Structure formats: C-alpha cells, structure tokens
Amino acid sequence: MSNQALQAANLVGRSVLAPTGLAALSEGGTISGTVELPAASNDVAVNVYDQAGQLVRRVELGAQAAGSVSFQWDGLKDDGQFASPGTYFVSAEASVDGRTEAVDTLLESQVRSVTLSNSGGLLLDLEGVGSLDFSEVQQIL
Prior knowledge:
globular; single chain; mainly beta; 57% strand; 11 strands
C-alpha cells in the first residue's frame, strides 16, 4: 500500500480525466475534457453552467463518430465576455437515433494532493472538484 501511495504522489500537479461533472476555470483559462459517445451522432453539444445553475455557454461540436470526442471551453460566455474564475458544471448531450440524450463527460482536473482513505484506497484532491476516489480516474494526462 505504501508503494502505491508513493506512486500516486507523483500525480500531484498532473492532470487527470474523470467523470466529475465539475471543473475549475482559472483567470483567462480554459476547461477541457472528452465526451464519450456510445454511437455516432449528428449533433453533439457541451453545456457549461455556473454555480447558480445558469447556462453560461453551449459549445456545439456538430456531427461526431462514436467514441471519445475532445472539447475545450475557452472561458467565454455566450455574450462574449470572460466568465469569472471558479467552479463550473459541465454536461454533454447528443442526438442519437432522433433523440437527444445525456452522454458521459470526462473533465480534466489538476491533482492538488493524494491521501489514503480509511478503507486503504487512494483519494485525489482535484482543483475545483474536491475528493475523488482514484478508481474513478479514466486517464492520467
């Protein structure tokens, strides 16, 4: 276990992709992630909401093949102004077989620290997200 903790400590300062739904926007920064499409879609969009639940920006990705589709929000709101730094909720939807449905979204977050949980697992402290079990990480960037 201590060997695993030492290896996990190397994650501090690195970014991971995980299904958190939340991401931190820094001053002048961006939010990145991937949309996981179970099937090809002729219309994929990513929606970004502020802490009050208000839609800040809709990022249209257009038609996409099945699989992972990368996206990046440039931090601009729909009105062209920069959004305030903070934590944002991000979700995605796709039109599949004529129906619009929610699809899984993985968001990029920076690892601030790693701790051992009471059950012996590893917990990552992600910027703007908080604690996340290491087992939920889909990719280390």
